[in-house]
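Researcher: Next sequence.
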Amino acid sequence: MDGTGLSDREQRALSAIEAELRGDRALDRMLRSGRRRRPAAWAGVWAAVTAALFVAASVTVSEALLWGCAAAWVLTVVTALPPAVERARHRRGRAGPRAEA
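Model: Next structure:
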């Protein structure tokens, strides 16, 4: 920047953006903790493990592998459910009428 400040219009726009970001609890929590969480990525990992165990159990007809597949499936669902609910809530919140600036 060349040292000039923001105009009044730009200051108002910036304040509106900051206010909107302050209302995002998930973003606030992520920024305060200093680390990024990737539960959806873990759900993908568990889904891959579940698929691999299912294929192995189908090929070998092993009861132990079938139980392992069932356990991995439960972990997949438990890991994937919170991000899916959060995403649905986020989309539902955005679906409402937007305020014009």
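Model: The first helix runs from residue 8 to 22. The mean pLDDT is 78.
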